[in-house]
């Protein structure tokens, strides 16, 4: 039998009870439940399939799923695909359709949709020669551009909704397993394309653009987008922590379902399509086509800031505040290829140390493969002048602060040249020097000059 006590609570118990009540009131007043800040009107406008009679179910604790969209059999009622922005190989779509592994663009204005071969391809390896070029051209298996009348018979009257922003990568794994080609070319071009929707993006990188929800690698598996140094995933996961990824097996699984999907917004990238652009023919860089789109001078700052913070870079470095110039020489000595002659390497190191001793500059002689990923990024973020023989280590230039003093110096064997790091430096607005022996063969001065 329970014994009922009539004694009053002790002072300590009363104090604890009072603190608990005060804490609960404070938490309630600060709205820690994010969903409580959404109005019913906002929920109604954001989710498909909610009518005015369902307002009572949209409480603070409920969220109407956007999973299915249907329309009448009337041809004009299907949502048309909108080309939001486009450059060869880089296209932003609203309402893009996918079924059985084929992409459908539904639009009644043929002039509103770019030529198919400048949007997509067969997604196979890029090899030289006319025959391989022809084999990469898209067919109706890859993409169809149809009218609403044609869609009526081909697509039916309903679709499963893929909400938010999707980045659809239609490239084979041929290049994207390389740090430069993924982070400083494919990802570079993706963000230059998507950020064109925010041409006033400030130096802080803050943007109102919705974050991307997912990436679909239509032709690569989970092992063939990562590089050997695991920097690709560092860059991607630090920029978009909530991002999900799907691979070729997922793409095939969706195709086997036989159901139509409609994607809210898609950034569609395709290397072979970009290679048909004029800028690519001049630079050999697929991201160069995306730079023809409108955009802010500070377009890369969103990515740089997120990656820097993830690596633990302090606020002063993020802001580019430095009392002393920092020179970083990325050495490839010991790699066995693309190295300076030993005597030239030693002479360069000696001269850099002379600058340090005479002028107080900070000089770093590093092999990037000996540093952790965070150390590589933190060092690049502080660097004023980066130099080295053409090679993967120079990809770190994308984490430098684009200031009037920021400079990249790249060494080539006499007669050799590649636009990789020249183009990347130039697109970020920094100075660039290409060097053969003692001769400067190419230079670029930034927009800030």
Gyration radius (Cα, Å) is: 27 Å
Structural class call reads alpha/beta
- Continuous helix count: 16
Q: What's the count of strands?
A: 15
Mean pLDDT level? 86
Query: What characteristic shape results from the CA principal axes?
Result: elongated
Low-confidence stretches: 1-9, 19-55
Share of residues in helices:
25-40%
Largest sheet: 9 strands, mixed
Q: In angstroms, what separates the terminal alpha carbons?
A: 88 Å
What amount of the residues lies in strands?
Answer: 15-25%
Keywords:
449 residues; alpha/beta; six-stranded mixed sheet; 16 helices; 32% helix
Question: What order do the helices and strands come in, and which of them pair?
Answer:
Layout: H1 11-29, H2 40-46, E1 68-70, E2 82-87, E3 90-99, E4 102-106, H3 130-136, E5 143-146, H4 148-154, E6 158-169, H5 173-176, H6 179-194, E7 212-217, H7 231-239, E8 244-246, H8 248-257, E9 261-269, H9 271-274, H10 278-283, H11 287-290, H12 301-310, H13 315-318, E10 326-330, H14 342-359, E11 362-366, H15 373-382, E12 385-389, E13 407-412, H16 420-427, E14 431-436, E15 439-444
Parallel strand pairs: 4-5, 6-7, 6-9, 7-8, 10-11, 10-12, 12-13, 13-14
Antiparallel strand pairs: 1-6, 2-3, 3-4, 3-9, 14-15
């Amino acid at each position: 039998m329970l014994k009922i006590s009539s004694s009053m609570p002790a002072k300590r118990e009363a104090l604890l009870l009072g603190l608990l009540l005060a804490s609960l009131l404070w938490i309630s007043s600060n709205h820690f439940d994010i969903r409580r800040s959404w109005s019913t009107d906002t929920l109604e406008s954001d989710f498909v399939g909610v009518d005015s009679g369902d307002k009572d179910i949209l409480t603070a604790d409920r969220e109407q799923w956007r999973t299915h969209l249907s329309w009448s059999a009337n041809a004009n009622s299907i949502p048309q695909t909108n080309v939001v922005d486009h450059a060869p190989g880089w296209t932003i779509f609203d309402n893009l359709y996918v079924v059985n592994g084929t992409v459908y663009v539904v639009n009644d204005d043929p002039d509103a949709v770019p030529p198919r071969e400048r949007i997509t391809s067969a997604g196979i390896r890029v090899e030289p020669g006319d025959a391989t070029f022809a084999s990469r051209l898209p067919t109706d298996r890859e993409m169809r551009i149809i009218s609403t009348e044609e869609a009526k018979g081909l697509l039916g009257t309903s679709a499963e909704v893929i909400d938010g922003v999707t980045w659809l990568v239609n490239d084979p794994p041929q290049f994207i397993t390389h740090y430069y080609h993924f982070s400083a070319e494919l990802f570079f071009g993706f963000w230059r394309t998507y950020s064109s929707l925010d041409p006033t993006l400030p130096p802080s990188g803050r943007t109102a653009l919705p974050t991307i929800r997912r990436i679909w690698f239509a032709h690569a598996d989970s092992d063939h987008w990562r590089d050997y140094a695991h920097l690709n995933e560092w860059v991607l996961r630090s920029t978009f922590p909530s991002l999900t990824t799907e691979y070729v097996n997922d793409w095939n699984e969706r195709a086997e379902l036989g159901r139509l999907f409609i994607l809210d917004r898609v950034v569609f990238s395709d290397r072979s399509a970009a290679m048909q652009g004029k800028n690519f023919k001049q630079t050999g860089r697929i991201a160069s086509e995306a730079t023809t789109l409108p955009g802010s001078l500070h377009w890369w700052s969103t990515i740089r800031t997120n990656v820097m913070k993830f690596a633990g870079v302090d606020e002063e470095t993020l802001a580019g505040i430095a009392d002393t110039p920092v020179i970083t020489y990325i050495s490839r000595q010991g790699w066995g290829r693309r190295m300076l002659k030993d005597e030239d390497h030693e002479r360069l190191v000696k001269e850099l140390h002379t600058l340090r001793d005479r002028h107080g500059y900070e000089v770093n002689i590093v092999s990037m493969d000996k540093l952790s990923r965070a150390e590589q990024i933190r060092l690049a973020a502080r660097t004023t002048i980066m130099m080295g023989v053409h090679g993967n280590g120079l990809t770190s230039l994308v984490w430098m602060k684009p200031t009037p003093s920021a400079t990249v110096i790249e060494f080539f064997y006499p007669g050799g040249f590649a636009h990789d790091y020249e183009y990347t430096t130039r697109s970020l607005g920094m100075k660039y020097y290409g060097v053969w022996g003692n001769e400067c063969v190419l230079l670029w001065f930034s927009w800030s000059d």
